[in-house]
Amino acid sequence: MNTGEAAIEAGEARDKRPLFRNRDFTLLWGGAAFTTLGAQITILAYPMLVLWGGGTTSAAGLVSGAALLPYLLVQLPAGAVADRYDRRRLMIISDVGCLLAASSVMLAVFLDRIWLPHLMVAAFVQGSLAIFYDLAERSAVKNLVREDQVPGALSQNEARHRAMIMLGQPLGGFLLSLVRWVPFLFTAVAHLASLLMLLAIRRKFQTDRAEQPSGRLAADVAEGVTWLWRQSFLRNVMLLVSVSNLVFEGMSLSLMVIVRGSGGSPSSIGVVVAISGVGGLLGAMTSIWWRRRLSLPALIVAGLLVWTLCVPSLAFFSDPVLLGVVFAFCGYIGGVFNVAGGVYLVGLAQDHILSRAISVAMLLGAGASFLGAFAGGFVLDAAGVGRTVLVMTVLMGSLALVALLSPSVRAGARTREGGRLSAEDAAALD
């Protein structure tokens, strides 16, 4: 056997490796785990730092809204940048920026120089860079694994995300209750660990282009918007998800108000989030099981109905464990949705437009979330938890009804991607 034949056989053997033996995918997965862990620690620490520091619910809503505003302002250009430029380098820059932003807040809290505008700017910067990182990482996955391994890799990524929520937000609440600046130090260290893992990856994060992208970035953005807007099923489902995210931001702020009002500490919020994370993790792990039995439209309608039943319980429960169970049901549905939607989108979009397609989908799905945080804080201050929960329940129930009656959503069941997984697809995922 000559050297060339040996190299070909070695390459084929590498291609047949399971995901856990894929060095570059494991490094990417681990680096993203650290980045997500840091983000989850601070996403809860920011509003709790305000609330437990004597601030108003409105002020906490402003900080939460600043962290979510990038989903509206940054998504589209970030997707174009991730398709146009080196994704690995973009993720490295994002980690460095998040490290610096978290360090600045840590120093301000340590010196007792907390200033609401500074918290809002730091939260906005971290949220923006997290979007660049997330889009590049999501798009890189299909270039580091075999095509038949993509659904499994995305399922592992969603499970990782849910596990980091389960660990990160409770840890953030616990650390904040001990020493207020420690959550931000932990976040800085997590981004440093992610950075080191990214630097160790060898393979490229995108396919080679026949020619370098030219023209204005706005044209790239427009191409991504046009592509997704033509996918009527995906477009309308993401709009439904967008409105549901408004409700969830209101639920998160309501949770903090309920726990604080009952005398609970930031660590009590952590208990709720930990239980919720278990639900999300199980949802990610069982998403493919559901897709083998239900079409995407049926899954969406059922999920929205479960969410509608969960919202009213906030008006009756104050015990962290019971609240955690409610949020676990919500998280379970979210985990199922995210994996199923991710597989659907990656299967539709080609690599050269994938980051932009994901960015537009995320813009439609989460772009208005900041409104839920901004408005939720003011509504809770003005109307209280009971009336706010009633409004959120009606809104979520309306979404389930729209999904059930929408012709474009129902039509998704008749497509290969939106129908139940075929026997061939199911076999490829085993």
TrEMBL record:
The keyword Transmembrane applies. It comes from Streptosporangium jomthongense. This is MFS transporter. It is found in: Cell membrane. CDD domains: MFS_MefA_like (cd06173). The chain crosses the membrane at residues 26-46, 58-78, 90-111, 181-201, 237-259, 265-284, 296-315, 321-346, 358-379, 385-406. Residues 24-410 form the Major facilitator superfamily (MFS) profile domain. It is a multi-pass membrane protein. Pfam families: MFS_3.
